[in-house]
Structure formats: C-alpha cells, structure tokens
C-alpha cells in the first residue's frame, strides 16, 4: 500500500522522526498551549484550536515551532479548525455554536448565523469548498457551502449498530469519502458523499482496531491516519479502512494524541495527556 509519508531509516528508526515539540509552560500567561482540540496546516504554519476559556483562541505556530500570533482570544471557543479554498482559517465555535472565518492576520471575515448547530465539533473543507461540520449533540454530519448555506445533513449513527453517536473529528478525501471518528462507540466510520456508510474501523484491543479514536486526516493517497487517544498510537489505514501499520507509538514519544494533521511528509499532533501538560509535536 502506497503512502506519501516519508519513512526515515536513520539509526534503525522506521517511522517519522520527531522534529520539535512545544509544551505548556507554567511561567507564561496565558499558557503557551491550553486544551488543544483541533489542528491544521496553513502553508508552512500550523494552526492550533485551543478551547479552554478564558485562554481559548486559535494559535498559529511557524514550521519551526515558534508562536507567530493568536487569533480570537476570548472571542471564540474553538474546537475544529481547517483552511478554506481562499486560504482563510475556519473554525467551529462553541461560544456562538456556529462557524467563524478569520484571515491569517486574525481579522474575522465571516460568521455563520448563531446557533446554527447544537454543539459543533470537527470541521473539514473539500477541494470544491464544501464544509463538513459535525454536530456532537445531534449526531449528524452537516455539509454546507462556504456562505453557510446548508446543502445536506445525515446521521453518523450506524444502521447495523448503535444509532446514537457522538461524532468528534472529520476528514474528507479526494473522492469525497467522509471519515468520522465517533467517541460514543469508539469507531471510525467511512461514508460516501450521499451519507451511506461504506466501511467502519471497529473498536477493540486487536492491532487492526482502535480503542478511543480522536483526530482523523488523510494523506495525498487517501490513506486514513487516526490519532488513537486510548492506545497512545497514530494508526495508518487504507482508504477503505484496512489496517496498514502503527505509524507512531510510545517509542516515538506519542502519549494521548487528540488532533492530527498531515502535509506531505510532515505530521502535526496535538496531545492532551491525563493530569499532564498538553503538547504540540511535529514529525517528519
């Protein structure tokens, strides 16, 4: 199975190498990182959604791990984050339960109508500009135009399993397959663009299964990458949900990965550990 992720063989290491990490520092106010939820690449930079009031914000880091700027601190309570077709930053906002759009300088360009969702979580944007927003409370996948116009909605529960769901993170591949992590039944579901469930990565202790999946993303070959918070792993699957290998493990320094993004051979991971400081890491 082909993959765009570069594998380093230095010193016998067979996976991506840790390039740098940023951790929360108690001597900074506000803290350098506080409750990371979503992550995305913006060109060479990394945008981190931090959702703990009053330090909630979108924080932009350079490709070398330096904090460049903070966006919307105190004015947005973000969860998911993505980049739209105009190169602007879009985020789901728990404060107004909607989607907000910012430019790279931090100016708010657009806000969809308030209370457009019950509890919006993950967000993704496809190559045609359609926005995919998950609603945790309603258990739905919502497809919208960039303007906020709703195009389609379907439930993320399973016809052959639990109908209730708590969708958390979403990704869309080049064929408009929609990948959703479900915290309720701890699975990863793959839908076609009509909302039909076509495959599912089940929950379990076996190596090919997930235990507590959070962030999901896809590479340029539409392979699926899953941040498994419960197993302390980053797992690699084919486009149809077949396990390929564990991409990053505890041996690589992975601990409770929550959000993940891929750009070429670079992998950005936000970790939220139990009773420990969160961190942002870049592998490549």
Account of the protein in words:
It contains no helices and 24 strands. The protein is mostly beta strands. β23 and β24 (279-283) form a beta hairpin.
Keywords:
single chain, 284 residues, mainly beta, 4-stranded antiparallel β-sheet, 46% strand, globular, disordered N terminus
Please give the share of residues in helix: under 10%
Rg to the nearest angstrom? Answer: 17 Å
Strand content: over 45%
Taken in chain order, the helices and strands follow as EEEEEEEEEEEEEEEEEEEEEEEE
Structural class: mainly beta
Topology (SSEs and partners):
Blueprint: E1 18-23, E2 36-42, E3 45-50, E4 57-61, E5 67-71, E6 78-83, E7 89-93, E8 98-102, E9 108-111, E10 120-125, E11 131-135, E12 140-144, E13 150-155, E14 167-172, E15 178-182, E16 187-191, E17 197-201, E18 213-218, E19 224-228, E20 233-237, E21 243-248, E22 257-263, E23 266-271, E24 279-283
Antiparallel strand pairs: 1-24, 2-3, 3-4, 4-5, 6-7, 7-8, 8-9, 10-11, 11-12, 12-13, 14-15, 15-16, 16-17, 18-19, 19-20, 20-21, 22-23, 23-24
